[in-house]
Design a protein that fits this description.
This protein has 118 residues and is mainly alpha-helical. The chain is 73% helix and 0% strand. The radius of gyration is 17 Å and the shape is elongated.
Length: 118
C-alpha cells in the first residue's frame, strides 16, 4: 500500500515547477536553469517562448497525471493489488514528461518557421 505513495511526487513536482517558472520573472538564456535545448537557446525570443510553453505544459500535465495516478491507484488497490502497478504508473508518468518535451519542441519549431517568414 505504501508503494502507491511514491507515485504522487512526480505530478506534484511538475505542477510546482510549472507554477514557479510561470510566475518567475524572465531570466536570460543560461545553461543551468530552464528548458534548455539548442532550439530554445537560439535567441531570447525562443527562450522566453519555450519557458512559458514548458511551464504551462508542466502545470497541465502535473494536474492530469495526478488525477490519473490517483484513479489508477485506487482501482488497482481495490481490484488488482499487484506490486508492479506503481512501477507501471511511474513509467506512464515518465513517458508523459517526454511527451511534454516533444510537444514544446514541435511547437517551438512551428514558431521558428512562423517567425522566420516575417
Amino acid at each position: 500500500m505504501l508503494d502507491y505513495l511514491f507515485i504522487f511526487p512526480i505530478p506534484l513536482l511538475l505542477f510546482v515547477i510549472g507554477v514557479i517558472i510561470l510566475n518567475t520573472k524572465a531570466y536570460d538564456i543560461n545553461s543551468v536553469v530552464g528548458y534548455r535545448t539548442p532550439r530554445s537557446m537560439r535567441d531570447k525570443r525562443s527562450w522566453d517562448w519555450a519557458q512559458q510553453m514548458m511551464a504551462e505544459c508542466f502545470i497541465y500535465y502535473g494536474i492530469i497525471s495526478l488525477i490519473v495516478s490517483i484513479i489508477l491507484s485506487v482501482l488497482c488497490i481495490i481490484f488488482y493489488n499487484k506490486e508492479f502497478v506503481p512501477c507501471a504508473i511511474l513509467l506512464l508518468q515518465t513517458i508523459g514528461i517526454f511527451g511534454v518535451i516533444v510537444k514544446v519542441e514541435g511547437n517551438l519549431k512551428k514558431e521558428h518557421e512562423r517567425w522566420d517568414k516575417k
